[in-house]
Structures are given as C-alpha cells and as structure tokens.
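Usage

Read records sequentially. Each one opens with the input sequence:
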Amino acid sequence: MKLKIVPVFSFLIVIVCLSFLGFRLFKWYSAHQKRKELCVYLQSKSPVLRHLPADARVYINLYDLKRVYGELQDTRFYDVLAHWFDTGMSDSDQRANPLMGGMVEKTVLDTVGNEFGIALIPSVQRGVDFVAVAKIESGSGFILKLALASAKKTRKIEFAGGSIYGFPTKDSRYQEIFVYLGDDLAFASSDLDRIKQAGGAEGTGPKFLRKLGVDAIPQDTFLFAQSDNPSLSAIGYGTGHDYRLRMNGDATIVSHLPESKQSGQTVFQLQTNGTEIFNQPATSFSLESEGGDPISHLLLTFDQQDKAELYSQTLLEQLNAHSGTIIETFNRRGLDCYHYRKSNRERFLCSGQGSILLAEGQLDLQNTGFQLKGNAPEKLPLTVRMQFRRELISDYFHRIENKEWSRFDRAKQFYFLSCLQELSGSIDRSNREISARFN
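and closes with the structure output:
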C-alpha cells in the first residue's frame, strides 16, 4: 500500500507544479501581448498619430501623462509644480493664486494629459517644421475655444467651419505658430498648410513607422519616440517615484560636442548631439550656483563658422527689436559679447570660434561645465551626457518642505531640481539608459 501512495503523491506534486508553471506562463504571455498591443496602438492605431503628416522624419508620443502626474502627487516635485501653476507659470515675481493655479492645472492636463503627439518634418524655409496633435478631454474644447477667441494679437483664418488662429512670435524662422481646435483633437503647427492638412481627414501617419516591427514595450510607457534616417527609438516608462528613459539605435552622427570639464559650482550639466540630426548645432547647457542663485550658460557649437555668424546676427537683430538697448559690448577670451537685461535678469550673447554662448544671471566663462569651442568633427552615436550634484542645492528642498517660496521667481530651476533624489546614467557608446527618482 505504501508503495502505491508514493507514486500517487509524486504525480500530484508534478500536476501542481505544471499547473503553477502553466499559470505563470499564461500570465507572462497575457502581459507580453498587452505590451505589444500598446506598441501597436502608439505606432499605427492612435487617432493622434493618424493626423500627423506622412513625410515626418521624427514621431514623439506623450501618452497618459495624467497617470504620471497623479502618481507624483505625494512628492515635493508636485508641490513645486503646483506653486508654479499658482503663479501662472510666470517668470516674474507674481503672487500665488491657488484658484488660478487650479484652472491652469486643469487646462494643461485636459490638453496634453491624455495623449500628445508631435512630428518633425524637414523644411526648406525653416530647416524643421512641426505638427502637434493632442487628444483633449471631453468638454474642455469649449473653454479652449473661448480662450483662443479672446487672445490678443492673433490672426484668424477660417477653416472647416471653424477658425485657425495665428500667434506671432519673436523668432524670425517661425514668425507665426498656428493653432486649431477640432471636436476631440487640438492641433498646432509652424506651417499653415500643414495644420490644415492635419486638421482634415484622418490619414495613416508617418510612412516610416510602417516599416518598423512591433516590440513588447512596458505597460507604464509614457514616452514613445521613433526617428527615420538616422534610425533611433526611445521609450520613457516608470511608475510611482521612479522613471527611466531608454534609447536604442546604431546610427552615428557627425558631432561637434565640446569637452566637458569639472567645476565646483556646476549643479546640472547636459550635453547632446541629438540636435545635429536636424542640421542644428550641438548643444551644451550648464547651471551653476553663485551665492545660492542660479546662473546658466547655453553653448551652441556649429559645424561651420558662417552658420554661427549668421545665427548670431539673427539673435542680435531679435535682441535689438524686442529687448531694448544693449548695456555694453566687450570681448572676452576671443568671444564678442553683448550684455543686456530682460525680465529683470542680466543676460549675455557671445559669439566666436564657430560657437554661440547665451548666459543668464552672470557671465562666468571660468566655471562653465564645458570647453567654449567644439571638438574636431567626430562620428559618435546619439549622445546625451548629464551630471547632477544635488548637494549644492539641498537647502532648496528644505525651503519646499517649509513652503518658503521667496526665491522662486529667480531660482525656480533649483526648486525643481532639488526634488530629484537621483539622476543617473547616460546615452553614449556604452550606455543606453537614464534613470530618475523623485522626492
């Protein structure tokens, strides 16, 4: 009898283990299919995608940002964001108004919180044109239309029984930005013909996406991006307080990024050659702390000297047209510089050596986080380098905890950055992921 019990017991154990394994495989397969379904939606079935132009070279989709926003509501980052909304997202010292902040918050989330897609298209006139489409919250269209109709200095163009609104800008390349509201979708573009095309009948979206395979992407994906020639992809995903950006692609870019350097005052530094994909200058940005106040330096390194000179002249013309009288001009370390004041902040425009440097707060060439000229052209993969030193601005986190906003108008960058508990990783030859954890 005992001999019979042992095989039966063993058989039952095998059946239980196989059942458990089968259940786990079924759960894995179901989750895998859902991840693939999300990719299919974002890559071919999204109504936002289907209104974007077929000849787009870059496609970016911000998906379900309301979820991300909701999961960050128990963080200090949310407290800073809420205060920013309360001040009307203004650069000036404006008194916080929670009622206005609630309205701004709702408008932003109703407009871009569900799904927001943008496409970039090569342009002979402007270098790059864009078309953006947002899936707006039901019932919010009426308020948005009232806001557009009451906006000043706009041009109204009749279209499809409604109106396209043209908003003038101070950028000579994009002299007007066009906005159109449909029933469930909102549209914006740098080109009038393209917004008319996007606001018409639904199409099939960018052609290059049809050549791509379907991947199983994380179900908590909130950023989905693809580019054609060079072939690159990126996804942003995460939940709670932890988020990641992952990029893939073997394309190389003829890059002009300058060398980075160490500075004891640098709080945050970002360098990328991604802009060179669109024949734009490589970009280096550093944010330093000087007596607790932020000073920033943005360096644009061009592939040709004449391009830098032309762009510098364009910026100078805009400066003269919109920012008043230049305070002084001078030459420092081979750079011709213009000192001016805007929004009660000291600003500087410097050019030379194939580069343009824009500084705010103070011009401190010694302590920028990078060299002031680009390297010789070098073939690099898509590169995003970052450095972050939270300890230099830890006092701002204590200000947030104590609801102390007296420096917010002149140091909002430090308020936001101090909420990052961790920011690590890079995109380069050996790394493909950047991670962030919010406090």
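Summary fields computed downstream for this record:
- The mean pLDDT is 85.
- The CA atoms of residues 129 and 282 lie 19 Å apart.
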